[in-house]
């Protein structure tokens, strides 16, 4: 399944809310140290410095944070969102009232490091399947409160997005199947019930764990079949079965080591929770000097 | 510096807000799949199952999430907050309307996995310095929006907390020193200025990077001296200098591999950003069955 | 296309917010007349009386309003949500502190009358296509702030829901097609672009206005084709073309007079804006007496 | 009773909140279709086109919606708020980033159509009583959440406003009278109690249903007497009785067919719930083309 | 003008919001001292002790604060809202988790002392005019954010309320008159314009500063005339002029020393800003002991 | 203890929120009188006039209020924040749409009068201890909702701030000591427990009421000792004991009459609740004329 390479815009209202909340959380406007030590007219400048190699994501978030702190801060990035940086690379600079820069630094970096971490982890998976017709997507295993930003970072890293939440996509999981079976329904009947109860704009995706279940999903005319925690051979067999009838998504235990083999099994989509729930923050610093 | 082992309560208002926001973010009350497939009167039960070894943190958060989804869900944990679990260990169970359980599962797990990850990473550092009079603390490198919860997880893991934010602690960093020097002040004068401008209830902590700066901090009667990115020998020398005059905090590049050596250098406090910004989520699942 | 008859639950958080906002808007807790005239210990009872014939929707909303005003009010409905009432029919009663009943009456009725109006209008359309395999759905032409409630009322009236908003469904409208053509794309390419840029959980729906465009939509393998403002003959021709390849949705100018003919044209879905944007409120009163 | 013809300004804070909420509700910043299909640099223009005849109300609301979506959109209306339009009449145009225009269109139209519907219904009643000294006013039967906007639309349509809510006007209704009688009070005593308990800046209005009650209201020196559901003869008799002593308001069952007769009965004020609770949305479209 | 002696209920939603905000402002759930020193199972009890003489107002506010902190706290007051206390008098007691009591104490007392201060100041004025047919009312000179509570305290102190805010009462002040005169209007015309532009449920009150202006107000049939900063003789003359035609309100420079003379001048209403903007907090303490 | 004379900036987000809330509370955008009487194009100007002598605080708050009401209002102050004014002194002027000026006047003045009252009361205490090495500070006895602004006013008046709230400073009060004693702890053990349980960035302050307790506090190495309600001789004795070992704070019953004696007793800090809980509003008016 091919994938758009365009990075979508961030919801400006969501961006503003999350950044202001973070500034309030960090007491950025009540910075006792800076208020005691830095007079309002002292100016400073700083450079953004990568200390790890990776993909930068979150430049608009950092820009929003500094703009919220003080409109007099000017900020220029010498790279584009999604560019790769090497350790030691300077990728932007800012100038303005020194006190404001110091008070906003931590919040800006907390976002930038975390989102760059997710983008970098995503890029690693995407690069590992280069040339194959497969889409790498996120899951709902995101940080509470940051789903919009983290999904954005996945896009910046070259991945695509799964459903946003429980309300905008149908995914019949093992427990839903079990619930249906307890009421005497088989998989095709469960698929039909989901289709009857949901908006017609949504595809019906169902999670299966065996080849036999994949056959049932096919019988029920599922639109998408999630192959959960199957080994590569099973996955390939199921993918062949479903090719042309349903999209297939591989999920569970995907790592940088095995993702190419999974993709070669012929699935259309590979989802990864670790790119959001366990990505290592990219080490970035802001080196400041007095103007 | 010794440390209280008591786990403080979570701010109930903050807890409620963060959990409700997460449920809204995940569309938990508009779960199209579950609403189409699970009738309101179908009941289920599930068990919480650890799939990694680690420290569990966030039981009250998970409980709040399920209570918010549906007051009819009952939930019992067989361990206490902060207990260690082994892979395969069942540590709790819940029972109630199956649809509600399915709709709340992901949010509850997202919190539980993340907070347990931070608690586990903290415990590793704390255990590595067992027997030494040193306090392991967090930093402001937390997830935006989750600082209260992550600092709580650090306490659950046996660590202590640094200042909450810029408003409730003084920390004169390298850039503040540079700003002062640009105005002709030396370190003792900078410390005096911070003391003059801040509430008398706050200690004055200052970051130094060399032994010479530590001597200046001593001359300025700093209450706490943060030894930033020093090697262990320098740190030990500075700690000896300051012993009895100021608390000392080691910061920068602390890992499980070197923390004991750092502690043996004689510092009172060791701070770590990685326990909040890069902790790996602890793998936990909720295994559900029909009642 | 068949449709589930199950009424989904209302999001309790959304319900609470919208009801509290309405009570604040109406000054229900600062009712100067009632506070001056009705002592706290005076009790009253009242009955809900239908003055028009129609479908009742919003019983849980009315119940939430009275519970918010005063937990001592008890309320019992003698019908179920979605039942039909005749003029003069009493369908519920409440008892409690008289002042609280008077202060909450208007807000409760404002919701109940409006939602019942939408449910009644929906039921009329649904009944008109009885026996035909077609789904009657709403549009995004809802009252600002009340989309969740109005979509719920559509379900209560026997209809189904279209996408909730711009974020959870793809609908390529005439302007999107024109935008694509301006960039040199034909309809199959536009469909492919939408598919590439959106989550794989969403179907791709496209609006066409001619049979020729319907052929292009077929060539692009659209999942759903909206036949906009076509006459019944064109619609039937397009529906035959697409049968088995895509769902078809009829939209534009649907009335109680023509809906059966539209359905007989063979479309799967018929959408109506008037059931939300121009439904007449159902006349309902609360007849109160002193206890 | 004469009436000001000046249209009051809309509360800017209320306007902003209601518009932003509606945009969030519609997912206007997360429009998956537009984001996939319309590049940020593609521009468009559109015209506002009336498809029904009526009074336009809500131009500032539509302007606020498009400004919130994208500050680069420019918008010009060729009519004034409150002007009459004919079917086919173009009354404004806008130009800017095409994607932003498409994402904001529905919310802007939802407000504009609804408010124009209320203004049009109001104008019909006002025109029907042209030349008579009577004020046409709204009621509290407004859409929850939209009272401020709907009352504004009534003003735009040439009507006036009744009290905003329960807190800023006294209206002793039948149930209040019954409550007082149950405690042994007659109508003059009830009026006195209301006067004693409320701010002196409020008139005391009382609802009566018979001529005898109107006599009691006069004895109690009510400031305003609401004549509820009386026939025209009774109303005229009561109006003559009260002339010079109290204002009179007619309420209940007022339609375009009977309003002139009601006005000729000599009342000062006529209130109508249908102009807010059951106004038909005015059909307006935004015709868009690529720039 | 007589006045109701009934104390109206507090808006529960407003009460909850203002109390929760105050608890958050005071960090009541993050009380580092108490969390470090008082274990969760240690219990305490305390008594409310008056240290000044005065009227107690705010018992429900204090109760709400302690209930918000910890539902296990039980609280009993031995007096009623509005009762007079003497220095040294115990008027209530509470029992519960000691830590919760300590964390909530300050917020509860801040409200109780301030509201009791306003009630006490009001009572002093009310007592000074005992036996005279005059109503003592507040103004809009209240503490930002606390208007609802302070107006309530005025009622508890035996006073009455003026309009709540600019939206729910008409008061034509000197600057409005000057604005009208600049446009060529005289006072009767200004009164007519206000009447034309405002809901018919509001009286028209106008501020005058001379007897001549009072005559003009009478000519314009003002409903209420505010006599601003007149001496007692002028006031008496104006009151005689207006008796039977309009209510009269004395305002400006009213003190405990001169209020009886002002009342004897024959006005209906006397307003005082000092009872809200400059009332001295009543000294109240909570004496706590371990259970 | 010396004190910075620099006035810190106000948190812009907090400022905006508190001002907007106050404007909404006062109905400033729904001012029925002004909307009926002042056309949008009528302009006015006004001057700020002091009617009492005192310190002006809150100029940025007043400016924010008028800017929020109408961006066209221009405003110039001829004094600086914190300057002293005499009765009759004009200290600023504004010009703009007259209606907007009238609608915003009361809220602007309510803030300005109250904050100036606190600044003036603070200045009186500060001046009374001129030349002595003592810091005058506020307490937590602030107006609910206005702590940030009132603490700011204390700074404007030349005072300093105590801890912001329970979360950012440790203060072991008599009840905490009693709680500890009930568990068998003495004062040094209580101090140690607080130190163990709190961030290392906070000083430990303890309240004592006798010389003997002061000795215990010294033994426990408290950082700050609050001498509560001691007479001046005791205070002097305790201050001598603790000099060089801990800061000392005098609290309780401090007045303009006795503060110099208290300061001469040798304490470092004097705290006063009355400057926030009982400060008299400074009388300020806005004299407006038509432009």
Summarize the structure.
Six copies of one chain form a homohexamer. The first copy, chain A, has 291 residues and is of the alpha/beta class.
List keywords for this structure.
homohexamer, 291 residues, alpha/beta, Aldehyde Oxidoreductase, domain 3, TIM Barrel, 2 domains, 6-stranded parallel β-sheet, 4-stranded antiparallel β-sheet, 11 helices, elongated
Q: Can you walk through the features of this model?
A:
The structure is a homohexamer of 291-residue chains. By secondary structure, chain A is of the alpha/beta class. Chain A folds into two domains: 4-122 and 279-290, Quinolinate phosphoribosyl transferase, N-terminal domain (Aldehyde Oxidoreductase, domain 3); 128-277, Aldolase class I (TIM Barrel), CATH 3.20.20. Chain A has eleven helices and twelve strands. The first copy, chain A, has helices spanning 12-25, 32-37, 59-69, 98-128, 147-156, 174-182, 187-197, 211-219, 232-242, 259-264, 274-277, and strands at 43-50, 54-55, 74-77, 84-85, 90-97, 135-137, 170-172, 204-208, 224-228, 247-251, 269-271, 284-290. Chain A has a six-stranded parallel β-sheet. In chain A, strands 3-5-1-12 form a four-stranded antiparallel β-sheet, with helices on one face. A two-stranded antiparallel sheet of chain A has the order 2-4. In chain A, strand 10, helix 10 and strand 11 form a beta-alpha-beta unit. Chains in contact: A-B, A-C, A-D, A-F, B-C, B-E, B-F, C-D, C-E, D-E, D-F, E-F.
